[in-house]
Specification:
This protein has 461 residues and is of the alpha+beta class. The chain folds into three domains: 143 residues, Adenine-n6-DNA-methyltransferase TaqI, Chain A, domain 2; 140 residues; 138 residues, Alpha-Beta Complex (Adenine-n6-DNA-methyltransferase TaqI, Chain A, domain 2). The chain is 39% helix and 20% strand. The chain has 16 helices and 24 strands. Strands 16-23-20-21-18 form a five-stranded mixed sheet. The protein has a four-stranded antiparallel sheet with strand order 2-11-8-9, with helices on one face. The longest helix has 41 residues. It is globular, with a radius of gyration of 27 Å. The relative contact order is 0.11. This is Restriction endonuclease subunit S.
Length: 461
């Protein structure tokens, strides 16, 4: 730590500390977004799902109004999660304190990263109290020691770390868009059967009542200006689809010529298990990724690139399914059902996951999207008193439609392009996250100078 750095208690560095503990707002379905402790996670504010009424805002927010750039800190359940507010008008819930650095003394973006540092997190934990749930009183929070360099240096450090976070966020947004494209393509072809409807309309074939409304909308849309017409497939792909529907007992109306089967008959599925955690020979110095639903819950895209825990060779042998290959589709089968991922690494799985192994006919994006759009049917087959769980026995008989081979090939070709882009972006997210996490403690302790960090940033971007 350089001698030019300053150390002061948190309270001495703040222009505002806004604390709404002890009050519970009346929540509504829409209105002013409500920032709650549960959506402050991993340095960011997750999607907002709760609101307060517009006409309640002034009454509720009497203790102070948050501003763009303010730092929010969770004080309990969990303690120590940090994020920064953007320009939206928001309300603050319980267990959230807003911090605003003293102007010209403590930069707010630098403050966000400082509050995430091990130096501050250790103090929060040490000053927190509670047996079941640990929390921190404002009187204790105000005494937390903050160390920081000159204001200009703070801005430089915040810019480096912020640039990395912005690039990570941009990549995540692009991945979300790419995933939405894959979902839309799958839904159009294999859920809504749009190409079959279009072909049936052209051929003048009967339209089942179940899809009549959609067929009517598509027929009307074709009469609109070309810019407003629904997306039409190239002729060579559209001609691969049939032009009529047939009624099946298992799935209702389906495209003519497509086979109705089951997921278990078409795709090899397996589960996993957890070697004894009391036996170090299964875990100590392990190098083989071991995936649980918890790992899947933390993903920012469909791609699984790492896990929290690792198995030894002996540990892998204790898992009945061993190590599963790259491009295995994983689905959490309990607590909760429905996390989905595609492995980019050989991986072993625990008993809370059903794995769909790579299949020459059905690519990983096909299987993942099949599971996504069939999740209601999957959950309907689950059981359990403490929490719902879908067993392989109940999963395997779920109806599964098999399109013509050429149609699957066309979808897989489109999907591979999308998946390759998602994979590339996910790998960059991973490397940038590692770099940010390595730079943060070094920059915030003065071990690494700004020019050196800027060089590392330039090389990474």
């Amino acid at each position: 730590m350089g001698s030019e750095w300053t150390e002061k208690p948190l309270a001495a560095c703040m222009d505002a500390i806004i604390d709404y503990r002890g009050k519970t707002p009346t929540k509504t379905d829409s209105g002013i977004p409500l920032i709650t402790a549960k959506i402050i996670k991993d340095g960011a504010i997750q999607p907002i799902t709760e609101f307060i009424a517009e006409d309640s805002y002034d009454t509720w927010m009497r203790r102070g109004l948050p501003e763009a750039g303010d730092v929010v800190l969770t004080t309990e359940a969990p303690l120590g999660e940090v994020a920064q507010l953007d320009g939206r008008k928001v309300a603050l819930a319980q267990r959230v304190i807003t911090l605003r650095g003293k102007k010209g003394i403590l930069d707010n973006t630098y403050l966000k990263y400082l509050m995430q540092s091990q130096y501050v997190q250790h103090q929060l934990d040490g000053r927190g109290t509670g047996t079941t749930v640990k929390g921190i009183k404002q009187s204790e929070l105000r005494q937390i020691k903050l160390k920081f360099p000159s204001f200009d240096q703070q801005k430089g450090i915040a810019n480096i770390l912020g640039t990395l976070d912005n690039k990570i966020e941009l990549n995540c947004q692009i991945n979300t868009t790419l995933e939405a494209m894959a979902q839309a393509l799958f839904k159009s072809w294999f859920v809504d059967f749009d190409p079959v409807i279009d072909n049936a309309l052209v051929a003048g074939n009967p339209i089942p009542d179940e899809v009549a409304a959609r067929a009517e909308r598509r027929a009307q849309a074709t009469q609109q200006p070309s810019s407003e017409q629904p997306h039409t497939l190239p002729a060579n792909i559209r001609q691969q689809f049939p032009d009529r529907f047939v009624l099946t007992e298992e799935m209702g109306w389906v495209p003519e010529g497509w086979k109705v089967s089951t997921i278990g008959a078409e795709v090899e599925t397996t589960g996993g298990g957890t070697p004894s955690t009391k036996d170090d020979s299964f875990w100590k110095d392990g190098t083989h990724p071991f995936c649980t639903p918890k790992d899947m819950s933390r993903l920012t895209s469909w791609v699984l690139m790492d896990t929290e825990r690792y198995l030894t060779d002996a540990g892998v042998k204790k898992v009945s399914s061993g190590q599963l290959p790259i491009e295995t589709v994983l689905m959490s089968s309990r607590a909760p059902i429905g996390y989905l991922a595609i492995s980019d690494i050989p991986v072993s799985v625990n008993q809370g996951i059903i794995a769909m192994l790579p299949n020459p006919a059905f690519g990983p994006l096909y299987l993942l999207n099949w599971a996504k759009f069939n999740m209601p049917a999957i959950i309907d087959r689950a059981n359990g008193s403490t929490f719902l769980e879908i067993s392989k026995k109940n999963f395997q008989p779920i109806p599964f439609i098999v399109p013509h081979k050429t149609i699957l090939q066309s979808f897989n070709a489109e999907a591979r392009t999308i998946h390759a882009k998602i994979l590339k972006l996910s790998e960059q997210i991973d490397s940038l996250t590692i770099l940010r996490d390595a730079l943060l403690p070094k920059l915030l302790s003065g071990q690494l100078r700004i020019p050196e960090a800027e060089q590392l940033l330039a090389e990474a971007l």
